[in-house]
Specification:
The chain is mainly β and 69 residues long. It has a domain at 14-61. It has one helix at 38-43, and strands at residues 15-16, 29-31, 46-51, 57-61. It has a four-stranded mixed β-sheet with strand order 1-4-3-2. A hairpin with a 5-residue loop joins strand 3 and strand 4 (57-61). It is globular. It starts with 14 loop residues before the first strand and ends in an 8-residue tail after the last strand. The structure holds zinc ion. Zinc ion (ZN) binds at residues 21, 23-24, 26, 51, 53-54, 56.
């Protein structure tokens, strides 16, 4: 199911429960640039990352595992 084709749902941040891109199965991520919801989401222990393969933006829980920078 592609949420990007469903209007506003496509703009919701996607939180990954695994460290794997659901779209392209890549396990390589980099830290994403900050955007407006990040300050809020950081309070919820979410950090922005970007898949290096398809360049989609996701959020991870926690701060223990650093994305490659
Ligand atoms: Zn990907």
């Amino acid at each position: 199911m592609d949420f990007a084709s469903q209007g506003w749902l496509g703009r919701l941040p996607r939180v990954l429960s695994t460290r794997q891109c659901p779209l392209c199965s890549s396990i390589r991520f980099v830290a994403a640039e900050s955007s407006w919801p990040d300050g809020l989401l950081r309070l919820l222990m979410l950090r922005p990352v970007r898949c290096v393969n398809c360049w989609r933006r996701y959020y991870w829980f926690g701060t223990a595992n650093k994305a490659a920078e």
